[in-house]
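Hi support team,

I submitted a single chain yesterday and got back a structure, but I'm not sure I'm reading the token output correctly. Could someone confirm the output below corresponds to the sequence I sent? I've pasted both exactly as they appear in my results page.

Thanks,
R.
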Amino acid sequence: MTEVFEQELREQLTLARRALREARDAEDDHGAQAHAGRIAGLLRIAEQHGIAVPSRSGTEPEPQKES
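Hi R., thanks for writing in. Yes, this is the structure output for that exact sequence:
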């Protein structure tokens, strides 16, 4: 995996986590749900490509295993 791909994934994850916190702080349930879905997708991509990412906050969705 290229360093550029890994760096972009990490940056997108950081942005999505920030957006999730902001949505929750604003009590924007729809926005929080959308950002949580984005985070779940990014975590799945990271897992599929063997990219270690910073630990989850405990309030993020678990990545879903594909059947």
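A quick pointer for reading it: The mean pLDDT is 86. Let us know if anything else looks off.

Best,
Support desk
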